[in-house]
Amino acid sequence: MALTLFLVCVARSSLAATYSVSSGSMQPSLLIGDRMLAEPFAYGYSTASLPFGDRLPRGSRIFASLPRRGDIVVFRGPAMPGTTWVKRVVGLPGDHVQMRAGRLWLNGRKVTWHDDGPGDEEVADGSKVPAERFTEALPDGRSHPILKRWKDGPLDDTPDVIVPAGCLFVMGDNRDNSADSRVPVGQGGVGLLPLWNLQGRVELVLASRDIAVTTGGPTSWIASIRSGRFLHSID
Predict the structure, then answer these.
(1) Where does the Peptidase S26 domain start and stop, copy by copy (predicted)?
(2) What are the residue numbers of the active site?
């Protein structure tokens, strides 16, 4: 019976999985209220891939493969067992990763970016605050948008970190509002993310709803739908 239950859970989690975005740490790529589609088998499997994975022993991954820099991944939250987080991979095992004056440095070189001009960050109550938009280009040629609210943010300068074997360095695209690998697990962040924690690679946004819109009936519910984000591809 136990083996049957295990195989059922593996089968359910091997095809596709959906997750809701509940924070703004990945803006502008992912918005609060987005429903993401992830490919669970993208990096192989560990017990973290199972619905009850937090209760099982940690170990290696089977059919394991490394993410690419720039992949958006979902994973077990190291600081909050039982939760699923989403961030972007910027550093692989062996990489040197550092923030200097708000700019990402990889392996001793400053990652290039392009200033896309003024934008905004949507906060939980639906209001918007000014932010600057940039396009960041990682060394392997993949680009993605980021947000910066401050020129001298609290996480703009970090030590040079060498990503150890079996770990990743992940960051939110909303650089001034993301508890990621720049923040230790003991302070509520991700720290250096063990590969065991990975649950999948985000492929697209299935649907999206502005949760800040008052829900008082069918009219307001329809008004909350972000029709432009249905089957929305992400960088």
Answers:
(1) 3-205
(2) 25, 87
131-173: per-residue pLDDT in tens?
Answer: 999 999 999 899 999 999 998 889 999 999 999 999 999 999 9
**What are the tens digits of pLDDT across the range 179-214?**
999 999 999 999 999 999 999 999 999 999 987 775
- Cβ atoms of residues 68 and 43 within 8 Å: no
User: What is the C-alpha separation between 209 and 225, in angstroms, rounded?
Assistant: 4
- Structural domain spans, the chain: 2-233
Q: What is the pTM of this model?
A: 0.88
The 3-class secondary structure across the chain, one letter per residue, is: CHHHHHHHHHHHHHHCEEEECCCCCCCCCCCCCEEEEEECCECEECHHHCCCHHHCCCCCCECCCCCCCCCEEEEECCCCCCCEEEEEEEECCCCEEEEECCEEEECCEECEEEEEEEEEEECCCCCEEEEEEEEEECCCCCEEEEEECCCCCCCCCCCCEECCCCEEEEECCECCCCCCCCCCHHHCCCCCEEHHHEEEEEEEEEEEECCCCCCCCHHHHHHCECHHHCCEECC
Tokens of 230: 């249905």
